What does this fold into?
Amino acid sequence: MYHKEKSIQIKNSASALYNNLGVLRIAPRRLTYFTVVHANVVNMISASWDGLNYSHRQLQSKEPNVATSTSLIMQAAFCALPSRDLLVVTSQKGIQMYESDGSIMVYWHALDTPETPTGVSSGAILVFDVPSKGSNITLSEVLEEHKESITDMASECSGSQECIANLVTADDEGNLCVWKSGEEFQLLNKIPGFDMSCSSVKLWKGTVVAGYGTGQIRLYEAVTGILHAEVNAHARWIYSLDIAPFSGLLLSAAEDSLVRVWHLTMTPETNSVEVAHLHNECVTDTQICGAKFCDGDGYAFAVTGYDLSEIIRYVQS
Amino acid sequence: MSSRTLPLLFINLGGEMLYILDQRLRAQNIPADKAKKVSTIAAWIEEDRKRVMNDIITTMFNKKFLEELFKPQELYSKKALRTVFDRLAHASIMRLNQASMDKLYDLMTMAFKYQVLLCPRPKDILLVSFNHMDAIKDFVKDTPSILSQVDETYRQLIEMYTPLSSGEFQLIRQTLLIFFQDMHIRVSIFLKDKVQNSNGRFVLPTSGSVPHGTQVPGLIRIFSCTGEELTRQQFNNGGNYNAALREGSFEIFGDRVTKLGTNMYSVSRPVETHMSGTSKNSAQHTKVSAAPNPLAKEELNLLARLMGGLEVEKPGNTDSGFRVNLFATDEEEEEALISRPDELSYGVINIQATKDQQANAELAKIMGEFTESGDQSPGASSKGDDLLAMMDGL
It folds into this structure.
């Protein structure tokens, strides 16, 4: 179904962090940006679609104008907002936001350093107001619902009336919170975990798709919390999930060296969901830490692994 | 990242170090009756070996040292941790040359990296730690005073780690993996057992038992809105897995179930590392650690406590033949030192309190300052700088 294509070499190897691959497709310029975190550095690669041009950039997490040492990065992700795209980098010391090509840092938010360093966040979710241009970004809300540190979050901004919920957040105990955006964020539902970390979460057509440390994937109806499906998907901790929204393809990747492709079918009339397994790829002797589709149809996907200095790419045959 | 990583890193690396030293000391052993006949030749008799192990273990589990270790803190830099182990390895009459110390450290780190990577669940790192602790306890079972220190450490480990969630253990594991990033030194015992490839990467099998708490992959279950199971389907998991084994014990005594962290060396299996072909990979990790580390002073507190608790060795010992060689011959050891690629140098400042008289005096002065003031007084930062500068200057 898929075959391997030429890999992209990166300057450092990928660190073992959840969801350690960011992908942003810039159609007008026929480019795709990739981000891979290595300790305190974000490796950014801009790849042209014809496969001929690659350019590299490295970003470090540090406060502007402060010459202290950099801190370890937890995650780097692209946020596609209606008017602009941003690259958000979270580290032990704070949150940085860059223009999507990594050229300018537009915002820095320092995290309070507690007296005794815990290295684990409190579970608070920070909401920022981002203008369509410039760096006038402000903290607008702090959502405090989770008690454990946040592992991942996902949003869906579909205009359809059926989808009320547009944000889901997951934490280290496996609890999921479903929110609706607006003047203020409103908590719609809380889906309790089973004491097992949820490392990756996605939201699609009102369905939460969550990956857990036990290797299971669970699908819930976001607003009601009804469990639609449970898959014993992987033999080790799941590190990354991604959905291709136009085709309903789901990508899952874990420490067990396997990337799996699934197909999700929603039938709103019967309020049911189907999950079909389509394909496996084994990245030999590698604990996978990031896997993302490169386009909205799922025609291609990319994978990163711990200690691997390349982004492996697969394309549909 | 996790601030509870250091104790596990130290205890597991220390455990591996003891396995290797024990094996080398036995390999260089001469039976007691022969030793008596050739009194001028230095030889390791049973007594000496036990004494070395006891001395090192006593230092490892020194009360003040452990107090410092168990405080929530960032992981030490590679350089600082290597220096701590250098000092620990010299906490007895045993002497190691630079090349042997480098090799010892390579083996220790690659062994623990292997164990961390292969742990089925992050929490299993604690079981690996208990395997090391169980072996250490066995080394000192005839010495009650040290045994009680070891038991105390078990209690501290249980107190600190058993309440942690799976997510917190995964964070600890991720912190350790960042520490071990890009290390691909080939170890002959791993190569022979086919757990490491010739490119230095470990073999991760897609077969075997799944971790405790995980199901064998392959089942998709669909539920109705009322929670009844509607359908179940199987898919091909691409591997060859079987159900999880029983869970290991997290108590002071018990069957740990996992073999990771147990002693894989024996007298007949020599330990070798291969330097060639690894320089390309290591260049990457030295780049990242180039940034100055302001936490170096805190790291040195630990080191100072370690050094402060030891007697300064008298100069006579270096030639008395209590030297341990991690290589088969002296020539090999010398050759290894010369041919070691620059990128793999640990950049350790060799604090041999025995050799340099001037260094000895300065070290004694600074050690004295440390033990006087206790911890973090306002003046402490400049003393930390002195020690740091002194170490850089050696």
Notes: The longest strand of chain A covers residues 272-282.
